[in-house]
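Re: the request from the purification team.
They wanted to know what the chain is likely to look like in 3D before they choose a buffer screen. I agreed to run a prediction and write the result into the notebook, where they can find it.
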Amino acid sequence: MDDLDRRILTVLQKNNRLSFAELAELVDSSAASCMRRVNKLRSTGVIVADISLVDPKVLGKSLTVVVTVELDRDRLDFVEDFKRAMQAAKEVTQCYMVTGDADFVLIVAVEDVDAFDVFVKKKLFINPNVRKFKTMITLDCVKLDPRITV
């Protein structure tokens, strides 16, 4: 990856809806070169998705909760089962397997405390491998920036 690829990625992380001509103007290159490079960045897995970020509050998900989860056993099959369960849980917007006191950190977006209570009962309490979990209700989103410095 060279400097032009890095400039392209920086611009695309801010706005991936630009035409190749617009992108080329912003990175000081040609549209054809930008198209080839973007296609290569996608095919090699550098760019993993082109997505739209949605404000959860607009969709009625006004409560965001950070949850740390500690599993009871460290067997690989239990870990994989938990990963699959969190991937399938529509309330979980992010799930990280982590080091330290917890095994996983979840970001959960729901309508309200009642909806979070339902999530906890159906996804955490019911799972026999969850030893304990801790929750932190967010008060304010100070920064939400999915961009990676390139």
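For the purification team: The chain has a mean pLDDT of 95.
Please add any questions underneath this entry.
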